[in-house]
């Protein structure tokens, strides 16, 4: 870690846990923990590639409603992560991790069954699937953070965990396309349910129980205080209402009064959340006192970068399928470079984290997000795939797989072992919530620049407008990361200058 890293003394992880694993046990342990990342991100790709097919089965072609198939899942992944991280701190990461697999299995089953009902049940199932992802992600990261001591080995394990993201989204898109084109789309979700149950069974065997020192009053009131229920209600409620307002506005228009009401109430709840966390709660969900101001730069960069990524991945697929007339399966085939490039990016990031200041890694990742969006935003409709589209797929994975491992590792090393779940939750909350919220921003831009979307050229104009917003978010992330890097550089130079003056 560089000099501009978080100004907190790193906390030792549980050395004994990692040292007790045999090589085979460790392989299975890392694999099943990475499956938490895999199952969470697969749910993005499995819905994205057959989006039109699923919409047609429900008789839906409204872009605003179709975007909810994606945004609803990311919304609950992002908002429930903080509470699930606290549950992991209190009740055990292993227990909550296993429950996460079982929860995803249940609602994947419902998502498939919704084909016999209507799109409302499907969106409802997608929203509840996200709670399973929220249980998996922070507790998976917390298991790794509490198991491995600091060092190159831990860096590489976190990089491997990050590498699961692009490949799982890719595989989800491929299997979603295969089932929708060659069989029946509900089987994509029913297969997920089977895989999730198998992962839960294997996890019970290979993941050790991590003991905690968390103590709370053994009563219902004591449990509510330990969980910071008031803070959780305000935080989750505020995030959900703000997100719903922004994602609903492109469908019904900002002229609808209830959209403003949802937005205002959501903002008030978020203000109440910060008041509760700082002034009221005995056990705040987010230990703000444990973080230095540098954390704000890191999370701000992550929010901008992953917000731009959420827009990029949604409109990339819409552009390929709507304007280049590609089938879901062929689009998935074109998306293949994201997998190997993502693995390469994670390995390189794991190597760089011990040799480069985290701020510089963040600058590189924000640059990759921005350039990737520029390339797809200006790509001509009839240009060959091997032009800007292929280059875009080579660039964007570096943004994902440099920012996520660096941010999670920094926060994991910055907090005590009992707060590993909260540290992991904070990054994954920002990542997933930014993806969902940015789709609402992009939808608003799209409907305001596409002249009603009555002609293909107007629809394309709306797509490009949304992608230009993604370019702006990526550029803002670059700006914040550069400020962070400059600040760290000055902090590093001050002791040297002081020594020179003394000499």
TrEMBL record:
<feature type="transmembrane region" description="Helical">
    <location>
        <begin position="423"/>
        <end position="445"/>
    </location>
</feature>
<dbReference type="Pfam" id="PF07690">
    <property type="entry name" value="MFS_1"/>
</dbReference>
<dbReference type="InterPro" id="IPR036259">
    <property type="entry name" value="MFS_trans_sf"/>
</dbReference>
<feature type="transmembrane region" description="Helical">
    <location>
        <begin position="96"/>
        <end position="117"/>
    </location>
</feature>
<feature type="transmembrane region" description="Helical">
    <location>
        <begin position="227"/>
        <end position="246"/>
    </location>
</feature>
<dbReference type="GO" id="GO:0022857">
    <property type="term" value="F:transmembrane transporter activity"/>
</dbReference>
<feature type="transmembrane region" description="Helical">
    <location>
        <begin position="123"/>
        <end position="144"/>
    </location>
</feature>
<feature type="transmembrane region" description="Helical">
    <location>
        <begin position="329"/>
        <end position="352"/>
    </location>
</feature>
<feature type="transmembrane region" description="Helical">
    <location>
        <begin position="156"/>
        <end position="181"/>
    </location>
</feature>
<dbReference type="GO" id="GO:0016020">
    <property type="term" value="C:membrane"/>
</dbReference>
<protein>
    <submittedName>
        <fullName>Major facilitator superfamily</fullName>
    </submittedName>
</protein>
<keyword id="KW-1133">Transmembrane helix</keyword>
<dbReference type="InterPro" id="IPR011701">
    <property type="entry name" value="MFS"/>
</dbReference>
<dbReference type="InterPro" id="IPR020846">
    <property type="entry name" value="MFS_dom"/>
</dbReference>
<keyword id="KW-0812">Transmembrane</keyword>
<feature type="transmembrane region" description="Helical">
    <location>
        <begin position="465"/>
        <end position="486"/>
    </location>
</feature>
<feature type="transmembrane region" description="Helical">
    <location>
        <begin position="258"/>
        <end position="276"/>
    </location>
</feature>
<feature type="transmembrane region" description="Helical">
    <location>
        <begin position="359"/>
        <end position="379"/>
    </location>
</feature>
<feature type="transmembrane region" description="Helical">
    <location>
        <begin position="187"/>
        <end position="207"/>
    </location>
</feature>
<keyword id="KW-0472">Membrane</keyword>
<feature type="transmembrane region" description="Helical">
    <location>
        <begin position="385"/>
        <end position="411"/>
    </location>
</feature>
<feature type="domain" description="Major facilitator superfamily (MFS) profile">
    <location>
        <begin position="29"/>
        <end position="489"/>
    </location>
</feature>
<feature type="transmembrane region" description="Helical">
    <location>
        <begin position="65"/>
        <end position="84"/>
    </location>
</feature>
<feature type="transmembrane region" description="Helical">
    <location>
        <begin position="297"/>
        <end position="317"/>
    </location>
</feature>
């Amino acid at each position: 870690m560089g000099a501009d890293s978080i100004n907190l003394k790193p906390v030792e992880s549980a050395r004994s846990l990692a040292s007790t694993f045999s090589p085979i046990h460790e392989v299975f342990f890392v694999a099943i923990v990475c499956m938490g990342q895999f199952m969470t991100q697969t749910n993005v790709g499995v819905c994205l590639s057959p989006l039109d097919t699923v919409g047609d089965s429900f008789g839906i072609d409204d872009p605003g409603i179709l975007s909810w198939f994606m945004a609803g899942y990311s919304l609950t992944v992002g908002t429930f992560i903080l509470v699930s991280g606290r549950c992991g701190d209190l009740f055990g990461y292993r227990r909550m991790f296993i429950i996460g697999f079982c929860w995803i299995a249940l609602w994947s089953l419902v998502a498939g069954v919704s084909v016999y009902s209507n799109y409302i049940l499907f969106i409802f199932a997608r929203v509840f699937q996200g709670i399973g992802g929220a249980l998996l992600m922070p507790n998976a990261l917390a298991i790794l953070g509490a198991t491995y001591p600091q060092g190159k080995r831990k860096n590489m394990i976190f990089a491997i965990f990050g590498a699961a993201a692009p490949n799982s989204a890719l595989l989800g898109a491929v299997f979603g396309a295969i089932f929708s084109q060659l069989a029946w789309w509900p089987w994509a979700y029913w297969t997920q349910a089977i895989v999730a149950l198998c992962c839960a069974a294997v996890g019970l065997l290979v993941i050790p129980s991590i003991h905690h020192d968390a103590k709370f009053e053994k009563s219902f009131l004591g449990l509510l205080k330990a969980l910071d229920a008031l803070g959780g209600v305000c935080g989750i409620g505020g995030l959900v209402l703000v997100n719903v307002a922004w994602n609903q506005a492109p469908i019904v228009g900002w002229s609808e009064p209830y959209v403003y009401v949802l937005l205002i109430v959501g903002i008030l709840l978020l203000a109440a959340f910060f008041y509760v966390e700082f002034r009221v709660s005995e056990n705040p969900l987010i230990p703000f006192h444990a973080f230095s101001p540098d954390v704000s730069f890191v999370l701000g960069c992550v929010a901008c970068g992953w917000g731009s990524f959420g827009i990029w991945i949604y409109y990339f697929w819409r552009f390929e399928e709507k304007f280049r007339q590609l089938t879901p399966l062929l689009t998935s085939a074109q998306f293949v470079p994201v997998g190997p490039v993502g693995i390469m990016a994670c390995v390189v990031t794991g190597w760089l984290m011990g040799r480069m200041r985290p701020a510089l890694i963040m600058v590189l990742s924000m640059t990759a997000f921005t350039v990737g969006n520029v390339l797809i935003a200006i790509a001509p409709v009839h240009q060959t795939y091997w032009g800007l589209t292929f280059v875009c797929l080579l660039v964007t994975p570096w943004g994902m797989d440099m920012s996520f491992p660096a941010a999670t590792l920094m926060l994991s090393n910055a907090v005590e072992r009992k707060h590993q779940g909260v540290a992991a939750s904070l990054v994954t909350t920002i990542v997933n919530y930014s993806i969902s919220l940015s789709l609402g921003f992009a939808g608003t831009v799209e409907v305001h620049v596409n002249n009603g979307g009555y002609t293909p050229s107007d629809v394309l104009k709306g797509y490009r407008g949304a992608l230009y917003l993604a370019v702006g978010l990526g550029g803002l992330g670059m700006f914040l990361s550069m400020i962070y890097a400059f600040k760290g550089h000055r902090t590093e130079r001050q002791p040297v200058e002081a020594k020179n003056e003394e000499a």
